[in-house]
Amino acid sequence: MEEYMKPEERVIVALDVSDLGQVKTLVTTLAPHVACFKVGLELMTAFGGPRVVRLIHRLGGQVFYDGKFHDIPTTVARASKAVSGLGVKMFNLHASSSKEAVAAAAANKGG
After folding, report:
1. How confident is the model at residue 2 (pLDDT cuts 50, 70, 90)?
2. What is the reported pTM?
3. Is 1 part of a structural domain of the chain?
4. In degrees rounded to 5, what are phi and psi of residue 36?
5. Residue 68 falls in the annotated catalytic set
6. 58 is a domain residue
7. Spatial CA neighbour of 38 closest among 16, 55, 9, 54
């Protein structure tokens, strides 16, 4: 028998805002109904990625960290390990950075 995702497990809400008050309202309201929240470059730059991730977790949400890692394998490995240590549900990287960088991310994704 195939297992299917629940509807709420299919939804990622993009927090493309630069106001922590909006983040708090959106996460508090939507966390029970969605898989996770995308933290993108705008929030990361305005408030610091780790700070925003901790806030979302504290409010009951999960995080898709949209860091778009694209660098040499060693740097991608260290960034992957660091972001995984924050307890994010998922993160992304550019495949064009190299197959070695993709392998380094996979090896350091946490678990």
Report:
1. low
2. 0.91
3. no
4. -170, 180
5. yes
6. yes
7. 16
| Nearest one of 26, 64, 67, 14 to 44, comparing CA atoms | 67
Which CATH number belongs to the domain containing residue 32 in this structure? 3.20.20.70
The pLDDT tens digits of the residues spanning 65-101 come to 999 999 999 999 999 999 999 999 999 999 999 999 9
Q: Is 80 helix (H, G, I), strand (E, B) or coil?
A: helix
- Measured between its terminal Cα atoms, the distance across the chain in Å is 26
pLDDT in tens, 19-47: 999 999 999 999 999 999 999 999 999 99
Domain that holds residue 22: 7-107
Given 68, 81, 99, 109, the catalytic residue: 68
Residue at 77 is within a domain: yes
Query: What does the pLDDT read at residue 111?
Result: 62
Q: Number of structural domains, the chain?
A: 1
* Placement of tokens 């933290």 in the chain: 39
Would you say residue 65 lies in a domain? yes
